[in-house]
Every structure is written in structure tokens, then in C-alpha cells.
Amino acid sequence: MKQIIENTLAIVNDVEAELYQKARHSSKLGEIADFKQWLKFRHKQGAFQYACTIDCDYNARQLCIEVFDHIGFSPETIAECCLEMTSLIGNDGYFEIRFNPDDATEYGPDNYFNDEDGLVDINKDKDGELIVPYRKVLLTVWREYPAHVSVEYHVFFHALRQYLKEQNCASSVQAISQKFGLTDESDAYCDQLAVTPDFLQELTTELLLARIDSWRSISPRVAALSELINSRFY
């Protein structure tokens, strides 16, 4: 985990140097400074003040745990279904966990279709096998109305691991940890890792738009690091 953080900082420092020398007015310079403070010292500020929160209010991990607490299934059942990427709908639809690859923040009927056996997730074949790799979980929470929130896998599975530890479900904690490579160390860096791939991609895009040739050498490093982070959750 420390190596991932060090590699991230190395890329960010390289991009910062390029932008400072050749695009002094880039808005990304301020964001880079904020990101480095957060990555190194966990000081959330500026562009990252509300990172991994929902509408600048709810902490995403706390929101996940709220769903686990109220969805109406045992911790062991939640763990088993989440390991298999199987959606859960409980308490009259007030609380739901849906595995969904889209960036949409609201559940729509187009994500599912009816066949002779009932409601089927379009992202699974008829044998229940996954068709595409998932990146996000779509949660439904009750806020005097059903609110739908999309949460990154990094945050969701670390939250699930925390919840299962609090419920003294040692075997489920071990299963989740082994499948997704989660540790106490990765838990400490969960939020930073959740936003790192997208932010690094923004930086290389900025180099490209500024016509800075170094994007050609930095972009492959970004892609490799992003894949390293994201592949843990596929």
C-alpha cells in the first residue's frame, strides 16, 4: 500500500513540474497541492474537502453502514451476497444494495429486464455470470423518500469489512479481505485510493490539453497504477 502511495506521489510530482514549467495558469496546480496534502498528511482541503462524502454532507462509508444496519438481512447473508455481487433489496425497498456499472446516481428500470423467470440484472447472463466488471454499488437509503446513491467499490467493501468486524463475523471478514485484498493498511488509505485513479486521469488529460508532450510518457504510468488499484475490486 505504501508503494502505491509513493508511486502516486511520484506521478503527481512529475505532472506538477511539467504544468508549472509550461502551463503556469493551470487550475490543476491548486488541486495538486490539495491532493498531496491529503495523500501525505490526510488533511482534506480545497478541491478534496468533501472527497468521499455524499452531497457534502453524508460520509459515504457511514452511508454504507446505515444500509447494512437497516436492510433487514443478517451480516452473514450480506457478506455472502456481496461476495457474489448479488443485489439485495430489503425493508419494502427502503434500503437496497444494487451492483451496477453505470455512473448514474438514480436507479432506473432500464437496468433490469423481465424474463420468464422474473426480474434479471442485465449485467448478468441467464446463468447469473457477470458480463461486465463492476466499479460502483448503487445504494438506496430512506430520507423521507428513497434516495439513490452511487458508491465506489473501494469505499463500499472497506465499509463492509468494518461492519462485519463490528458484528464479530470473523470468517466473513476474512473472506471479504482475501477476495479484495483488504487490510488494516488499505482501510487507512481507503478514501485516497477511491479518488486516485480518476484524479490522475484528469492530470494527464490536462497535460494533453495543454499540448505538453510528457503526457505520452506519464499516461502509461497512470494507466498501470489505476489498473493496480481498480483490479483489486473486480
Summarize the structure.
The protein has 234 residues and is an alpha+beta fold.
Could you characterize what this model shows?
By secondary structure, the protein is of the alpha+beta class. It contains nine helices and eight strands. Helix content is 52%, strand content 15%. Strand 7 (136-142) and strand 8 (146-152) form a beta hairpin. Helix 1 runs parallel beside helix 8.
SS-based class: alpha+beta
Query: In what range is the share of β-strand residues?
Result: 5-15%
**Can you count the beta strands?**
8
Q: Write down the secondary-structure element order.
A: HHEEHHEEEEEEHHHHH
Total of helices: 9
Distance between the terminal alpha carbons, to the nearest Å? 18 Å
Mean of the pLDDT scores?
83
Radius of gyration: 19 Å
The largest beta-sheet arranges its strands as 3-4-7-8
**Approximate helicity band:** 40-55%
Which residues form runs of ≥5 with pLDDT under 50?
101-120
Largest sheet: 4 strands, antiparallel
Shape annotation: elongated
Layout of strands and helices, then pairs:
Layout (H helix, E strand, L loop, with lengths): L1 H21 L5 H14 L11 E2 L3 E2 H11 L4 H9 L4 E3 L4 E6 L11 E4 L2 E4 L14 E7 L3 E7 H14 L3 H11 L3 H5 L1 H20 L5 H16 L4
Antiparallel strand pairs: 1-2, 3-4, 4-7, 5-6, 7-8
Descriptive tags:
four-stranded antiparallel β-sheet; two-stranded antiparallel ribbon; alpha+beta; 9 helices; 15% strand; 234 residues; elongated
